[in-house]
Specification:
Blueprint (H helix, E strand, L loop, with lengths): L1 E4 L10 E4 L9 E11 L1 H8 L16 E9 L11 E5 L8 E5 L3 E3 L6 H5 L2 H14 L7 E4 L5 H13 L2 E6 L4 H6 L4 E4 L5 H8 L5 E6 L5 H7 L1 E9 L13 H6 L3 E4 L7 H14 L2 H4 L7 E6 L3 H10 L5 E5 L5
Parallel strand pairs: 8-9, 8-11, 9-10, 11-12, 12-13, 14-15
Antiparallel strand pairs: 1-2, 3-4, 3-6, 3-15, 4-5, 5-7
Helix pairs in contact: 3-4, 3-9
Length: 330
């Protein structure tokens, strides 16, 4: 089969299309003919050598999410069959014509959705659901602050917060303000020119928000903690700042009994990923069927142009997900 590989860590141009062996099916797996897949920042980090030679999951190939058509099923799988349309989380291997998928990490493509749309759902919305609902424990009437709200996970989190009935605040570039507000954010602070801490203080009459989902880290940490109301939760999903060592006011954490929770999809165990997918499938997936949630797509590239897709993500400024396609949608 055709797949994207790289012979050494480096810039996007190390990626190339090559012939590799198809994955072997195990009893609990399904073999999927990949139609489209989402590009995620973890793919860039893996290509750059951030994870070293360690393989998280079960494939050295890039790619954490995909959509496609079931080609074959393992001996223990009885609830899907060849021809079914699915979208899934994978432990690597999505940048290929065929992928081995753990049946319990796959769900049916919602009715009315194409493969390209479906490829923009799983990693972003499962991660956002985990951060906001499971770890952040948001509830109707709460208030939340979503950083990097124009990205794939950020835009998903804004929609989820709005769908559940929370007051949603967000940070994004000024050029993306209107688009993020259209997803349900009450106010969007330009991270280049506005102080979100002061903005949150003013918008909440000095009370702060219940939950913050942050992808930046570093210099945001202190401001995040000061923007939480007593008992608030900071869910740290990424480190776009590249700074993972920073001072923290333990006195503030103790006095306001705050929670700081870290989460990342790539290093989760298979069982943890299955549980995350199940939680999303039960309560989040129905929101796509009734229109409360929708995938946001920034750009679409064919698989052979994976290097260009990576370069585009690194350049930043997009709104939503970058998708790679294997062939045209049916």
């Amino acid at each position: 089969m055709k797949a994207i590989i790289y012979d050494q860590f480096g810039k996007a141009d190390v990626l190339r299309l090559a012939d590799v062996s198809q994955p072997e099916l195990r009893p609990g797996d399904i073999l999927v003919g990949v139609k489209a897949l989402g590009v995620n920042r973890a793919d860039l980090l893996q290509r750059q050598g951030y994870y070293g030679t360690q393989t998280y999951g079960e494939s050295p190939l890039l790619g954490l999410e995909l959509s496609g058509e079931v080609i074959a099923v393992g001996s223990d799988v009885s609830d899907v069959e060849p021809g079914d349309r699915i979208m899934a989380i994978v432990g690597g291997g999505a940048y290929a014509e065929f992928a081995r998928v753990d049946r319990r990490m796959a769900v049916a493509v919602p009715e009315g959705f194409g493969f390209i749309e479906a490829a923009a759902i799983m990693e972003s919305f499962v991660t956002a659901w985990e951060a906001l609902v499971h770890l952040g424990e948001i509830a109707p009437g709460n208030s939340v602050l979503i950083h990097a709200a124009a990205g794939g996970i950020g835009s998903a989190a804004v929609q989820i917060g709005n769908a559940i009935g929370t007051r949603v605040f967000a940070t994004a570039s000024a050029s993306r303000r209107d688009e993020v507000q259209a997803l349900g954010a009450e106010r969007v602070f330009d991270y280049n020119s506005e102080d979100f801490e002061a903005g949150i203080r003013e918008a909440t009459d000095g009370q702060g928000v219940d939950v913050i989902v942050d992808f930046v880290g570093g210099p945001y940490l202190g401001r995040n903690l000061r923007s939480l109301r007593p008992g608030g939760r900071l869910v740290q999903v990424g480190l776009l700042s590249g700074q993972d060592n920073t001072d923290i006011s333990l006195g503030l954490v103790l006095h306001n009994h705050l929670k700081i929770i870290g989460t990342v999809m790539k290093s989760r165990t298979a069982e943890e990923k299955r549980a995350m997918v199940q939680r999303f499938a039960e309560d989040g997936l129905p929101m796509f069927r009734d229109g409360r949630l929708r995938p946001v797509i920034s750009q679409i590239f064919p698989l052979a142009r994976a290097a260009e897709a990576h370069s585009s993500m690194e350049a930043g400024g997009g709104f939503g997900k970058i998708i790679l396609t294997i062939e045209n949608e049916d």
